[in-house]
Amino acid sequence: MKLLLLGLLLVPALAAAAAPPIGHVARLSGDQLGLAQATGGAPRKLAAGDPVFAGERIRTGAGTVLEIDFSDQSRFTLGPNSEFEVSRYSHGAGSGEEAFFSRVLKGAFRYVSGLIAHRQRQNVQVGVIVATIGIRGTHFEGEVSERHEQDGKMVDASARVVLLEPENAGAKTAIVVENKFGSVVVDEPGFGTEIPDEKSPPSPVRRMQLRTIDNVLRAIRSARPPALRPGRP
Question: Were both Cys, which of 43, 90, 209, 224 would link to 95 (CB 3.0–4.6 Å)?
Answer without folding.
Answer: 90
